[in-house]
Amino acid sequence: MKKPNQHIEHNNAVIRIRDLYKSFGDNHVLRGINLDIRQGENLVVLGKSGTGKSVLIKIMAGLLKPDSGTVEVLGEHVDKLSAKELDALRLKIGFSFQHSALYDSMTVGENLAFPLQRHQRHLSADDVRKEVMRVLEAVGLAQTLKQLPSELSGGQRKRIGIARTLIMQPAIMLYDEPTAGLDPITSMEINNLINEVQESYHTTAVIITHDLTCAKSTGDRIAILLDGHFNHTGTFEEVVEKSTDPQVKSFYDYNFID
After folding, report:
1. Taking the C-alpha atoms of 14, 17, 23 and 27 in order, what is their torsion angle to the nearest 10 degrees?
2. Residue pLDDT, tens place only, 32-60
3. pLDDT in tens, 137-186
4. Which of 100, 113, 232, 121 is nearest to 179 (CA)?
5. How far apart are CA 57 and CA 127, in angstroms?
6. If DSSP codes are grouped into helix, strand and coil, which group holds residue 22?
7. Domains of the chain, with CATH numbers?
């Protein structure tokens, strides 16, 4: 079970979601989502595949527009921002994609330097190198500086993907299925890294997963997405281990019982 985080500000929500709806044709994915995400917490959105978890964080990042309802991130109504304003907001959000989204033709160092060279053009080459090494050391992979993504393991690519988001020092981290496709030991290393990022960088994080071990290891609070809305929110013990909801219980059994 995750240890309580002392940096959570319970009265300060950095993400506010109200009456959020999203459909794709006849597929009603989100059906009235309401949630506040507090500054400094790791909030896990837990649910089976296809329940709309990834759709939700894409709306948070302005990659999709809601059909109705509001999403406020760092005081900004995301769907009302101009393209320029949305670009500025996204610089404060680190998006860790499920498949790391690294450029195959670039070395690890070049992948990490790219966002700084694009968005922080005032930095000298020496400053960029220092920042690259800072985040590589933060994820424990300083030795991979000159390697190509194809030379890395799946777990290492995940770590480098997280490092690339950290280099912009975001206020919010969005993790999309961070342990998908990883073996149990590597998954636990990624879970520990997510907690280390929260502790060291004081980030607020939304972690999308169907992996109960990830949820239990990283979540200060869990929100279970069922039938298009959050049926249960609270600690892992409250909403999963003590739940009498048959859907939650079957999900728990699938993850933890042979």
Report:
1. 100
2. 999 999 999 999 999 877 788 989 999 99
3. 999 999 999 999 999 998 999 999 999 999 999 999 999 999 988 999 99
4. 100
5. 32
6. strand
7. 9-92+176-182+203-258 (3.40.50.300)
